[in-house]
Amino acid sequence: MPLRPGRCYRKFSGPAYTRREYIPGIPMPKITKFVMGNVNGDYDYELRLITTEKGQIRHNALEAARVIALKYLSKKLASEQNFALVVTKYPHHVIRENKMMAFAGADRLQDGMRLSFGKPIGTAARLEKLGELVMYVRVKKEHLEAAKEALKIASSKLPIRTKIEISALNKEAAAQ
Questions:
Q1: pLDDT tens digit string along 2-29?
Q2: How far apart are CA 5 and CA 16, in angstroms?
Q3: Gap between the Cα atoms of 134 and 67, Å rounded
Q4: Which domains does the chain show, CATH number per domain?
């Protein structure tokens, strides 16, 4: 069955569904790497991708944002030693779907909304507060514009609105 659009899972209501020991058949999240680049480097600026609304981000959207940001930064900065990219959210919440048949005569084969709890189809990261950090990039001053563009492209892959905040990491960068 094809994947539903992100708008189907953007909003949330009720408590998180996270108790994996009681949930059989949870698919593994697509996102596996959360830290990329040279984390121990000496950088001037930190750019943060911050949410401006509450919502959920599915694991495949997080992975798409990570991949596109990493690809753009690697291409523009020529090496993964020139930046540090960290995804801070993990998809804990298990998403369920009550699969419905959509063909002639399906009403005789299925029960509709009776026993409609649903089966696990994926995971999502819940962002329950405004201003939560999704990912950040650390770069030197000369790579600031490329990092801004990378986060802007990555934010287009996410189902909720975000903004980019820039902060200086050392005193020389703050003075300029």
A1: 788 877 788 888 888 888 888 888 889 9
A2: 20
A3: 14
A4: 6-175 (3.90.1170.10)
